[in-house]
């Protein structure tokens, strides 16, 4: 920022020994409130003007009422005398405190913050929970030495005490979360994962997802409970129902994702059997069972890869041949250099992971000419691919590339609201239909199998994703109309499916509208009853006679007038907020910046305008339709957690998950820092310094 030369000339006067200053500022004048005056003295000159004299360098600056104090603060920032004085005061203060502590036999000085043993123990427990350190860290020599040198007064607790402190932290955090969930006015959705310990014990991980009152998307691990193997769907559903009642959220369930559970059909059936009769579910449970679109894509691609196993085996053998010896690797590098292939390392896949197979194919296809050269030089390399085989490999790779980047996009979304995925899934649906007509028979057969599996799951999840898309003000019904006309070639079928989605949306809206109306009436009735209970009765002790005094306020006589006026003043019924929302133009979106649109912030701002729709948005947008599941290896507890008491395992895993949100919300630790802390601890599976494996939704395809 550049200073105005005129202002600089008028505000800074170099003559520190100016003889025009004749008298100090009148003490009766207005009190100087700015802290900057601790470093300046205000004096009045003979001509009546005021100057501010720096107490450190004696420079004079203007001090008129119009000049303010900004220029004084700027001067202090460059005044070296002031800086030297502050450093000197700091050194002196430290020496005084040190001297005082020595005289008081180690007791802290008055200006020292008092050491608190109990608070420090709590901090230690939080650290162990957050980073997944073993409880035995309190016995590690290096840690004990570090703590002793840092704070000699701190008495390190024992293994058992620190374990109890961590469990106490978990219990307190559990009670706070229970209170938060009790106060929620919205529904919560669930994901259920099955984990395994190294000892073969199975765990059910129950996680809830919701949008809070501040329109922030939240997810919390509720329970991590052991289940006896072999897993029975009835036992899992019974355990889930029990935990839902414990958390008091069985009456506010939205949807549930059970993709990582082998008995998901049985679990869903049993839960619906117990919840449907109570009337707790949306649309009588039609929206309860949802499949993660990422899981569906993973499943259909992995199964279709079996049709390409002969081709992928030949590519795998070629890569293994190159990597089998140093001599062959050198030959291959020479061939790659000769044909101008890119300098990228060859990738050898894990056959059970289509993502790693895609990465192997993608790299190998770039070395087609290098493999051909190697076949001419190496007589042992007999299973090289023909030009047609390489053409098929490239065609398969192009299809896998689309699906890979979609999964990668799903994994990278920081706020995975349910509205973000409908367009991409419809696009994949269209591409699979086109791939079925590919000139490469292997691609066509793979696409046909993928399409069959996709449509099987799509029918179960389509309505939820479509409703979420309608609740996106950038698209409303437009995305559905556009894609369905392309996907379903028959205009009548397309129209029927569009109408089906629209009717489902309207029916769900009516359900929320009824709920909203009942809630308003009950609130008014409770308020009225609360006031009419002012018809208080009091019994007098004289002769057992009772006296009843009635108290009715003036506002009670006018109750309902506003509603009556609204109902009778117009012959035309007012439009619902759904009608207004759908009739209004879509929210303009900037090209290429769709991912920056914050739908939760939009609904927070427009909640008053669309009261019923905002209730729907609260519940629908939180449904985790994009969770990218971990593979079975990643869902295995490490060697530190595996032998632990399951109660301790649940306490540590849940407490770490809850503490992560608290750390991310801290003004001194940003979200990226907090995420790095958790991920760093989580990534060292099997290490004594870490206990918690990574979360399922933090999966990245690249990690495979």
Automatic annotation (TrEMBL):
Start and end residues of each HAT C-terminal dimerisation domain: 578-659
Entry's localization field: Nucleus
Classification via SUPFAM superfamilies: beta-beta-alpha zinc fingers (SSF57667), Hermes dimerisation domain (SSF140996), Ribonuclease H-like (SSF53098)
GO cellular component, one term: nucleus
SMART domains referenced in this protein's UniProt entry, alphabetically: ZnF_BED
Region (Disordered): 1-28
Main location: nucleus
GO molecular function: DNA binding; protein dimerization activity; zinc ion binding
Protein name in the entry: Zinc finger BED domain-containing protein RICESLEEPER 1 isoform X1
Lineage: Eukaryota, Viridiplantae, Streptophyta, Embryophyta, Tracheophyta
């Amino acid at each position: 920022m550049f200073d105005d030369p005129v202002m600089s000339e008028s505000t800074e006067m170099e003559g520190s020994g100016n003889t025009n200053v004749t008298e100090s500022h009148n003490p009766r004048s207005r009190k100087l409130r700015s802290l900057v005056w601790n470093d300046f003295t205000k004096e009045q000159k003979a001509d009546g003007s005021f100057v501010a004299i720096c107490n450190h360098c004696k420079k004079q600056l203007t001090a008129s009422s119009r000049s303010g104090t900004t220029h004084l603060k700027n001067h202090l920032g460059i005044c070296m005398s002031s800086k030297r004085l502050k450093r000197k005061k700091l050194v002196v203060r430290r020496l005084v405190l040190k001297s005082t502590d020595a005289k008081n036999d180690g007791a802290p000085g008055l200006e020292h913050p008092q050491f608190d043993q109990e608070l420090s123990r709590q901090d230690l427990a939080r650290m162990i929970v957050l980073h997944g350190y073993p409880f035995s860290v309190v016995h590690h020599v290096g840690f004990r030495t570090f703590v002793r040198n840092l704070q000699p007064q701190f008495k390190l607790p024992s293994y058992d005490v620190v374990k109890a402190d961590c469990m106490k932290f978990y219990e307190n955090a559990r009670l706070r979360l229970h209170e938060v969930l009790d106060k929620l006015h919205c529904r919560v959705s669930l994901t259920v994962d099955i984990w395994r310990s190294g000892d073969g014990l199975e765990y059910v991980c129950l996680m809830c997802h919701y949008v809070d009152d501040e329109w922030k998307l939240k997810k919390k691990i509720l329970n991590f409970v052991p289940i006896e193997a072999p897993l029975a769907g009835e036992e899992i559903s019974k355990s889930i129902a029990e935990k839902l009642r414990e958390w008091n959220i069985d009456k506010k369930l939205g949807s549930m994702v059970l993709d990582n559970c082998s008995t998901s059909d049985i679990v869903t059936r049993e839960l619906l059997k117990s919840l449907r009769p109570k009337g707790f579910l949306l649309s009588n449970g039609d929206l309860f069972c949802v499949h993660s679109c990422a899981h569906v894509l993973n499943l259909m691609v992995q199964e279709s890869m079996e049709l390409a196993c002969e081709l992928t085996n030949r590519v795998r053998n070629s890569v293994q041949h190159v990597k089998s010896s140093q001599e062959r690797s050198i030959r291959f590098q020479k061939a790659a250099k000769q044909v101008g292939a890119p300098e990228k390392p060859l990738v050898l896949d894990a056959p059970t992971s289509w993502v790693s197979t895609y990465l192997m194919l993608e790299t190998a296809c770039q070395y087609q000419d290098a493999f051909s050269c190697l076949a001419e030089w190496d007589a042992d390399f007999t299973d090289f691919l023909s030009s047609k085989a390489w053409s098929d490999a490239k065609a398969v790779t192009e299809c896998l590339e689309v699906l890979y980047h979609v999964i990668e996009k799903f994994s990278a979304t920081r706020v995975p609201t349910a509205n973000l995925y409908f367009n991409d899934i419809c696009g994949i649906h269209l591409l699979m239909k086109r791939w079925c007509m590919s000139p490469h028979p292997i691609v066509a057969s793979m696409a046909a199998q993928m399409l069959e599996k996709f449509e099987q799951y799509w029918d179960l999840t389509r309505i939820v994703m479509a409703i979420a898309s309608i609740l996106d003000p950038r698209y409303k019904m437009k995305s559905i109309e556009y894609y369905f006309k392309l996907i379903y070639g028959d205009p009548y079928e397309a129209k029927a499916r569009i109408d089906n989605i629209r009717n489902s949306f309207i029916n769900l809206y009516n359900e929320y509208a009824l709920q909203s109306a009942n809630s308003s009436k009950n609130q008014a009735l409770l308020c009225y009853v609360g006031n009419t209970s002012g018809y208080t009765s009091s019994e007098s002790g004289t002769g057992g006679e009772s006296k009843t005094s009635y108290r009715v306020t003036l506002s009670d006589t006018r109750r309902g007038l506003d509603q009556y006026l609204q109902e009778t003043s117009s012959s035309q019924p007012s439009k619902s907020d759904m009608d207004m929302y759908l009739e209004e133009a879509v929210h303009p979106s900037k090209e290429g910046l769709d991912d920056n649109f914050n739908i939760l912030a939009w609904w927070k701002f427009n909640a008053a305008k669309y009261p019923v729709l905002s209730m729907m948005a609260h519940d629908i947008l939180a449904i985790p339709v994009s969770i990218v599941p971990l593979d079975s290896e990643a869902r295995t507890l490490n060697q530190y957690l595996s032998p632990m008491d399951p109660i301790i395992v649940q306490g540590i895993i849940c407490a770490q998950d809850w503490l992560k949100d608290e750390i991310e919300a801290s003004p001194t630790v940003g979200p990226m820092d907090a995420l790095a802390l958790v991920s760093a601890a989580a990534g060292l599976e099997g290490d004594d310094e870490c206990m918690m494996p990574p979360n399922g939704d933090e999966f990245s395809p690249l990690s495979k």
